[in-house]
Every structure is written in C-alpha cells, then in structure tokens.
Structure of ABC transporter ATP-binding protein:
Amino acid sequence: MPQQPPEGEKPLLTVRGLTKLFGSFKACDEIDLDIGHGEIHALLGENGAGKSTLVKMLFGILAPSAGTIGWEGLDRVIANPAAARRLGIGMVFQHFSLFEALTVAENIALSLDEKISISELSKKAAELSVAYGLPLDPNAHVADLSVGERQRIEIVRALLQNPKLIILDEPTSVLTPQEADKLFETLFKLKAEGRSVLYISHRLEEVQRICDRATVLRHGKVTGACDPRQETPASLARMMVGADVAGVEKVEPPADGAVQLQVSNLSVSPRTPFAMALKNVSMTVKAGEILAIAGVAGNGQSELFDALSGEYVVQNPDAIRLRGKSVGRLGINERRLLGAGFVPEERHGHAAIPAMSLSENLFLSRNASDRSAYLAGGKIGLIRHGLVQQAARRISEMMDVRKSGEDPAAGSLSGGNLQKFIVGRELDRQPSVLVVNQPTWGVDAGAASRIRQALVDLAKSGSAVVVISQDLDEIFEVATSIAAISEGKLSDAYPASTMTRQRIGILMGGVHGLTTAPEAAHAH
C-alpha cells in the first residue's frame, strides 16, 4: 500500500493498480499512489523506472492498460490533456514545447483551452508571474530568453489553468542554483495555498529539502515510500536502485601527459542574433586530464562545443590543434579520424535520431573509414545483423542500457538510458580526445555514477577529456582542473584540488585572468 496522507484527510489523487503495457513489456506494473491536498510529493526512480509513463497517464497522454485513477474521491477516465486540465491537473514537461519566433503571451495562448485576447492574456500572465515570483515580460520573444526564463513560461501557463495538482518533470535540470531557489519559493507558495505538486527529480538533495513524502519506482513497480526529510541522499539512491550507488574513483592529475587539445585565442562571431560570441578562448588539455568547464546556461557552452567538434569550423586553422594538427578548418568527420569523440547536449535530434534503431544511430555516428569497414565486401546486411549490432550490444552491456528489445528505436529509451548509450558509443572508439556537453543531464544517480566513472576511466587510459557541465557536484567528482565560461569568455584553468564552490562562482560571474589562485578574485 502507498504511504498515506495525514490521518483524517482524503487524498486529492488516488491511483490503484495502474498498469501500462507496451506489447508484453510492463512499463508500469500495478502502481498504487496517493497525493494529499497541499503537499509536495516526490516521484523517484532510475531512468526507465516508469515515472514518465505514470505521469503521462495522469495527464491523459497515455491510456492505462488496467487500474483506476481517483480524483477527489471519484474514479475518473482522463482521455486527454484537456480533460486533465479541466479536472485541475497541470503539467510542466522536462523538454520545453515553445516556439522561439513567438512572444511569451502567444506561446501561452496556444496551450489554453479557453479563448482569450492576447492583451488580456498578457495582463493576466504578468500579474500571475509577479504574484508567484516568476517575473516574465509577456511581449518578449522566446528566442531572446534564457533557459530559466523559458522554464518560467511553462510554469506560468500551467498556473493560468488554476490547477489543484501540478506535475513537474525535472524542473531544475536547466536552472542555476539561484533560479532553483526561486522555484522552490514558488512551490512553497503553491503548497500554502493548498495546491499539490508531484515532483520528479534526480537531484536528491533538493527532494530532501522541499518534499513532504516520496514514492519510489523500480522496474515499473512501487518499491518504497518515505519521508525524504528523514533520509539521506545515499539512502534515497539506495531505495531507487536497490543497492548502494558506487562513488567515482577520481583520476590523479597527469604529471607529464602530452598535449592532446590546444585552443589558442579562439574567437567566433554569433551565428544567429541570439547566439553567444566566443572571445579569445584558450585552453590546454593533456593526456590523462579532465578539464571541467563550469558556467550558467547560455554563456557560450554550446558555441564552444560546436567549435571544438567541428560542427562549426572557424577561420583560423591554428586556433584549434588536435594531437598536434591544426583542425580549425576541418569538420567533425576529419576530427573523428584524428581520434576525437564528441557528445552533444541534446540527445534527441542532435546526438541521436529518435526514429532510428540504436545500431543505425551507431552506424551513422562512425566516420567514413569505420563505415567502410562495416560495409567491406558489399555486404549491406552487416549493418543490421552483423558488426554494428554486435557493437550496439557491447555498448549496451558496458553502460547497462535498459531497453525493451534487442535493437529498439532510440526514441523508445528513457532519457538516461539513451544518454548512457550515446556516451558509450563514443567511449567504444577509445578516443584520444573526448568533448562532452552536460554528460548527465536528466540522468538518475546510478546512471550518472556510471557515466562519470567511464569518463574518469577514459582519462586514466591516457585520453584527454573536456567536460562542459552546469552541475558543480559532477565537476568536483571528475575534474583534474576547472575553468568557467561567462559571456563567451573562458577563465584560466585551476587545479580542482584548489577550488571551492565559492571560487567557481566568482569565475562564473565573469572574473577572469586571476593571478595565482582564485582567492585573488576577492581583490576585484
């Protein structure tokens, strides 16, 4: 039985035996769940545990195969999202669904069931955003907004429906610590008004901080319930994965590793009116080193990744040198041939084509010589049934990728499992240089530990690794040296052993060119 709301109080939402079948696969297996009025309830579990499937049934996106959903004491059939909203259920998805060319108010209008003029909607959205501490300009174009501001749009348009229950899926994965704190203030305000929140997050410290109760899923089943305030992050992770989550055995800084990646005064003009320019970026990464680059989203991380990977070539060929060769004018395929690997931030559409199978995505990611080897002798069947599928199986086993079939479509995997496959796909090539952007975004504790350890092991084997991350815990866990990017400028790199969160924060704030140690920033 699920953990009950406070005695004498009827639940707002009651789920009994909720099951969802995809063929013979049970994504959700007889789930029981109660959510009380005015509570923040955490839904925890590994990637692929069934969390997204469950909330999609609650919001009317998927139809249950069996079981019941009770709302305020009555069984309900939630046929679609509009029906969910009429009941009083709102949802904010992990991946935003916003049109960049439209204004904030226009984007909100598209999601509303009622007809309302843009001017009236703008007024209501502005008032609501101020009331809940989520300031927005209704007339601003989405393309001009930061990721944190876009998150506010999603929350405000859910609140305009006056919901009694709001489902939040990984809401802080794209927020700075300061923006997350503001979000938590909003959630406490909603709670004080008697509204409820179903909160999905892999950040267990914040679950402890804000949630009243937690329900844990594993392999589609409810395996536990608790008061997270009485637990530790380690005990919550243990409940999620069924065992202790291994720590990362950190790599030691290299003594005399050869330079594998050299960037010298790299400047890149903005490719769009909304892109960030890179300004005189320089870095050196040696064999055996992990350089972690910290920064608030939107400060040039994507532009730096594109320049390093060759997705966007630069004017000066010597601005980027890979294993001693000038590659600034070379594309991604040529850089892969020189032994580089790349993992972009966006899984769907950038790192993988969702409609294609894992083996097909693996095949496409290989450089021309790799593909020629697979196709040697004209045996096209090898693509689907030979070497490529063998490699896909090997990667899945190495990275513990949970999947519903032998070679499923990439889009059928949970975000964390697809991320493990994408990282493993690059590691399988044993690159001399690996550049990875946000390696564990939206990934559970167990998967994050596996990915981070894999990056450390690659460095131990003699490769140079660049990790671009907004997660300071991750940075401290893997880095041998740390730099920060702010407004397209990269700070000097400092030994990870000398850094603290405060010092990284100073660098992230744009204080660069420190003399000997980050403490010098206090003099600025």
About this structure: Confidence is low (pLDDT under 50) at residues 376-384, 513-524. Residues 353-430 form one domain. The chain has three domains: 13-241, 247-339+431-524, 353-430.
